[in-house]
Amino acid sequence: MLLSECILPAALGELHALRGGDSEGPKVVALHGWLDNAASWVPLLGLLPQPLDVVALDLPGHGRSAHLGPGAEYSPYVAINAVLDAADALGWERFALLGHSMGAAISSLVAAACPQRVRRLVCIEALGGLGEDPAHAPERMRDAMTAARAKSRRGLRVFPSLAAPVRARMQVNGLSESSARLLVERGVRALDDGWVWSTDQRLTLPSLYRATHAQVDAIVESIDCPAQVILAEQAQPYFPEPLRSQRAARLRHGRTFVLPGSHHLHMDNAQAVAEVIGGFLGED
């Protein structure tokens, strides 16, 4: 699938995206994971069988999209409005959602909050967002406020070439070199003496608030559209077994698939993921 750059207006600031496919085809919004960007979808989109009209967003603070203003906090709930603003700018009243990790959490929140707009949902490696015991709320708030109020004097690290950030992504995420390079090339900006990450560094701060497990379960149970959940055999610490299987089972109209691979299986095992999705995103 040939992808081209597009820019969409949003209340939070301009959103950059990659768009491709058939402009007359079924509409799909693709949302990447935490600290990734729209290039996350490049290996998969060309393997999906039917003509789709796909917009892969750089979520706020990621890739080439605008950073939130001073004092604002990044959260999946804020991102709901960014997704809806993008769809409104495109003139899309109804669309399917394809999400990975954080993007899958955001996708499921949009599906729960705006069921009249979401016709299909594919969630890879997350569903409904992160939850925790309510007893952890005070400590979470204290840690988040301490980190947010700290005055860091450290500037961004400058890389003389792209080799170092590519190696870093490979080591941290277990990515192939080709997948890591896709993310890095869209996730840096050039300076006179090298490159720095374009991602807003505030995205690495701890969250002020996290929903309880019961709240996340209720959100998932409320999703009314047909849904697929695709998981890697290697479960992540934030979404372990049996939690991930139990949560996926709460979907009213969902199917769950477990495939070989690690967290970025939609990049490094794209063919298998495409075969599972098949024509699902293009169906009514």
| Rg, nearest Å | 18 Å
The rounded distance between the terminal residues' Cα atoms is: 22 Å
Estimate the helix proportion, in percent.
Answer: 25-40%
Q: If you average the pLDDT, what whole number results?
A: 95
Low-confidence stretches: none
Q: DSSP strand (E) fraction?
A: 15-25%
Q: Specify the number of helices.
A: 10
What does this structure look like?
The protein has 284 residues and is of the alpha/beta class. Helix content is 33%, strand content 21%. The chain contains ten helices and twelve strands. The chain has helices at 42-45, 76-90, 102-113, 137-149, 163-173, 177-186, 213-222, 243-248, 265-268, 270-277; strands at 3-8, 15-21, 27-31, 53-57, 95-100, 118-124, 131-132, 188-191, 194-197, 211-212, 227-232, 254-259. The strands form three sheets. An eight-stranded mixed beta sheet has the order 1-2-4-3-5-6-11-12, sandwiched between helices. It has a two-stranded parallel ribbon with strand order 7-10. Helix 8 (243-248) links the parallel strand 11 (227-232) and strand 12 (254-259). Helix 5 (163-173) crosses helix 6 (177-186). The longest helix has 15 residues, at 76-90. It is globular. The chain starts with a strand and ends in a 7-residue tail after the last helix. The model has no long low-confidence stretch (mean pLDDT 95).
